[in-house]
Design a protein that fits this description.
Number of domains: 1
Helix content: over 70%
Number of helices: 3
Shape: globular
Order of helices and strands: HHH
Largest sheet: none
Length: 60
């Protein structure tokens, strides 16, 4: 398995875990379209983009 394939799997797992824990709540609050758009945005992130967001989140 390549690093790219591992990264795609990692992002997919993040989405699945978030949906399991908070899916109903966030979909009720923000709507399916918004949540689906956010999930697509995460799936389209490069490793560098993901690290930048993670670094920002850790600093908050």
């Amino acid at each position: 398995m390549t690093d790219q394939e591992k990264f795609v799997g990692f992002k997919q797992k993040l989405i699945e875990e978030n949906e399991e824990k908070y899916g109903q709540e966030i979909r009720n609050k923000y709507g399916d379209q918004t949540v689906d758009q956010a999930n697509r945005k995460l799936m389209n992130m490069s490793p560098e983009q993901y690290e930048e967001v993670a670094r920002w989140a850790r600093s908050c």
